[in-house]
Amino acid sequence: MVSAPTDSRHRELLTPQAQAPQVPTSFEHLGVPRAVVENLLIKQIAAYPKSSLLQLTKLMCINSHLVEDIIATLRKKSLVEVFQAESGAFGQTSGNIVYALSEQGMQEADNAFVKDAYLGPVPVSLTDYDAMVKAQDVRAKLVTRNDVTVALNDVYGAERLISVLGPAINSGRALLLYGDAGTGKTFVATRLLNSLNTSVYVPYSVYAAGNIIKVFSGQHHKKVAEQESQSLAFKSQYDKRWVLCERPSIQVGGELTMDMLEVNHSEHNRVWMAPLQMMANNGIFIIDDLGRQPMPVATLLNRWIVPMEYFFDHLSLPNGQQITIPFILTLAFSTNLNPEKISDPAFLRRLGYKIQFQPLLESEYRALWEKLSQGRQLQIAPNTFDALFSLHRQHSVGFYPCLPKDIVGISRDIIAFEQSEPVITPEVLNRSWEVYFTADGKGGGER
């Protein structure tokens, strides 16, 4: 099922579902051990030497008086030195004084980086994270038929799915999307979040059982533009250790390994990263091409039995401890294999909704061809559709919504190369079909 890019106005209509987190005014309210904050500030000064109080406050994302308090402690320990800021234009200084580490402070920073390589805003506590995720539960805001209709308004064939997709979203239960490759399972799944006109707060990182776990990812989270408040009052601000984002939509396919579902770090980056399902909290987590992962399907599916049933997940941390995190997201499995052959009945029972995707109707398929051709500034010759439908019958290929986009694209390449009229003729169509499909008439992929 193919559509034009998502309307950019959707992002502007998003409003936070939960109340904004308040700005912490004390270390007790911060919810993180003071020693953790001290070590983080030492690393920040090591990474950004001769930084002003304002710069350090922005890096730490906490109140300036808390940063001043820690700096005073570090100075008493002879870990931080004070310097006069360099003069700017007209002899003005940018912040009067700046801070750098002493020789002893540099050694302390090296030790801190060895213990924990995280560098960023102060983490939020696991308790605060748990409360925020639960407050942003998708099930707390009812999705209506109109919401889903608007979200899929330019998806061909969507009207046959709306009546089941809406209740599936409201349930919060896992989905199984199955059907032939190219029927748009994954594409529709990614569009489901458009029916939720709410944004969510995602923490930069979470502190849990002695470990800092990085949660926010520029790859998986899209920030919502905010208007800068001109007021300095705390009531008009919120805790900047959180980022206001669109609901996350994370998709992973055959490359999925079990390590991605645990707290881990890359070979070159020793920062502990949240597993994919933690990054996807309050959004959707799509496991595409189920059955093509390197581990057995049973192993992968068994990993989700407890989270799907009880809405929490257990994670093992680097120090050997185990924590419990909320599992409040829409988990969607997508496959073009027969569900009965890749899973046992006990697991299928736990999947609240099993939704089959079918090829388009002929009228929908034709309309999609016309729309995409116009988008590429191409015309379709009167007898081209007769040739197209003949090819489908000859090769027993369904009216899959991925085909028009791909074949129209190939047709445009042929027309540009031949420098011919911008018209898809039966001849151009046949040439495009031959290079798109393999010799047995099968080819293409899911969109």
From TrEMBL:
Record's protein name: AAA+ ATPase domain-containing protein
Ranges of residues in domain AAA+ ATPase: 171-361
Domain of life of the organism encoding this protein: Bacteria
